[in-house]
């Protein structure tokens, strides 16, 4: 084995595979530029560290279950006027997340609550935070099955370790008393530790209908709202206003 092959073997054992794959180029460039030992060592380590960070970010994104297609850059603030781009941008320093504050997006269906929550979630992942996105129904399922289903147990562990939990669509389906209690237990555990973003199509006064009893609803709201910013989104459904029409599309294609 020559020196270069031996280096590759060592890199492989050390799992420094990005450097291993680009070693030839690195050495040619270093020789050509007469690079100092310090600079070449710096470059090698930098390549591997950057690749590692990129892999970690990809993994965090995969585990977050966020929708990659709903980014903030695609949100049209001219259509949704009850929130400004500036307000959303102010959230992107993530000071609120460091302080375990919560965000609540309320409003009728189609006004962009989920899109905004998801878009903020993507930015948080890019900042290095651990994020989990769930519809309430899925979250409740995890809470109900974590004692018997391994996948749910793992998910719950990740939820408790994440920096930001996004709970989407509170209000579409009512939940049972037992489910509300489990939900309350989770909210209590996360209280003052983990930021939560909630989206709901129901105002707080209607939450008792979804969560069952008044007492448990108040207890849940009490914790969520203690440190929180509430955004009341208004307006018409983007889905309906920007409805794509099959026949109109066919006509457009035929005319093109
Ligand atoms: P909600 O959660 O309030 O019911 P969504 O966020 O799911 O609404 O929005 C419904 C659909 O319309 C999604 O496909 C979303 O991307 C899109 N949408 C809503 N508001 C906007 C907006 N202001 N700009 C761009 N797309 C939007
Ligand atoms: Mg939604």
Please provide a written account of the structure.
The protein has a five-stranded parallel sheet with strand order 2-3-4-1-5. The protein is built from 13 helices and five strands. It starts with a helix and ends with a helix. Helix 9 links the parallel strand 3 and strand 4. It has helices spanning 3-13, 17-33, 37-64, 85-91, 95-98, 113-126, 136-145, 150-161, 177-190, 207-211, 214-226, 238-241, 246-255; strands at residues 102-106, 131-135, 164-170, 195-200, 228-232. It folds into two domains: 3-58, no CATH class; 65-241, Rossmann fold (3-Layer(aba) Sandwich). Helices cover 58% and strands 11% of the residues. It is α/β, with parallel strands linked by helices. The model has no long low-confidence stretch (mean pLDDT 94). Bound molecules: adenosine-5'-diphosphate and magnesium ion (MG).
Structural topology:
Blueprint: H1 3-13, H2 17-33, H3 37-64, H4 85-91, H5 95-98, E1 102-106, H6 113-126, E2 131-135, H7 136-145, H8 150-161, E3 164-170, H9 177-190, E4 195-200, H10 207-211, H11 214-226, E5 228-232, H12 238-241, H13 246-255
Parallel strand pairs: 1-4, 1-5, 2-3, 3-4
Helix pairs in contact: 1-2, 2-3, 3-6, 7-8, 7-9, 9-11
Magnesium ion (MG) binds next to helix 6 and strand 3.
């Amino acid at each position: 084995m020559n020196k270069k092959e031996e280096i590759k073997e060592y890199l492989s054992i050390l799992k420094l595979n990005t450097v291993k794959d680009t070693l030839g180029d690195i050495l040619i460039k270093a020789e050509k530029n007469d690079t100092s030992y310090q600079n070449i060592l710096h470059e090698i380590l930098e390549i591997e560290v950057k690749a590692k960070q990129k892999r970690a970010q990809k993994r965090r994104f995969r585990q977050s279950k966020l929708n990659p297609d709903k980014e903030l850059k695609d949100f049209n603030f001219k259509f949704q006027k009850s929130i400004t781009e500036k307000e959303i941008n102010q959230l992107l320093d993530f000071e609120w997340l460091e302080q375990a504050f919560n965000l609540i997006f309320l409003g009728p269906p189609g006004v962009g609550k989920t899109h905004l929550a998801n878009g903020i979630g993507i930015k948080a992942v890019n900042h290095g935070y651990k994020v989990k996105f769930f519809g309430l129904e899925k979250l409740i399922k995890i809470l109900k099955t974590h004692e018997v289903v391994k996948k749910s147990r793992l998910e719950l562990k990740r939820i408790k370790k994440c920096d930001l939990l996004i709970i989407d669509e509170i209000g579409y389906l009512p939940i049972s008393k037992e489910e509300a209690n489990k939900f309350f237990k989770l909210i209590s555990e996360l209280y003052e530790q983990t930021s939560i973003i909630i989206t709901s199509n129901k105002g707080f006064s209607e939450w008792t209908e979804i969560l069952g009893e008044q007492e448990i609803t108040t207890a849940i709201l009490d914790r969520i709202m203690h440190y929180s910013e509430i955004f009341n989104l208004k307006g018409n459904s983007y889905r309906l206003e920007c409805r794509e029409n099959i026949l109109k599309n066919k006509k457009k294609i035929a005319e093109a």
